[in-house]
Amino acid sequence: MLIQLPYDRAGAVKYAETWALKRNPGFPNFDGMGGDCTNFASQCVYAGCKVMNFTKTWSCQEWF
């Protein structure tokens, strides 16, 4: 079953503007693994809907 959630576009934009040039210490640092751009995009989406699939491990197979 598909669940629809409200999305706060302004919240996502505000997050992007706040954290685009620095890392949010509330999330893991992926600089040593090639960068943070995908993680940053996921954080922006999260800022708009407050839902994320947190797991105990990370994987290139799992995306937000």
Essential attributes:
single chain, 64 residues, flat, 38% helix, mainly alpha
How would you describe the overall organization of this protein?
With 64 residues, the protein is mostly helical. It has a domain at 9-49. It contains 2 helices and no strands. The chain has helices spanning 9-19, 37-49. Helix 1 (9-19) packs antiparallel against helix 2. The model has no long low-confidence stretch (mean pLDDT 81).
- Assembly annotation: single chain
Question: Mind telling me the C-alpha Rg?
Answer: 13 Å
Category by helix and strand content = mainly alpha
Biggest sheet statistics: none
Strand content: under 5%
Euclidean distance between termini CA atoms: 18 Å
Task: State the helix count.
Answer: 2
The amount of helix comes to 25-40%
Note the overall shape: flat
The low-pLDDT segments are none
Number of strands: 0
Estimate the mean pLDDT confidence.
81
Order of helices and strands: HH
Set out the fold topology:
Layout: H1 9-19, H2 37-49
Helix pairs in contact: 1-2
Question: Short description, anyone?
Answer:
The protein is an all-alpha fold.
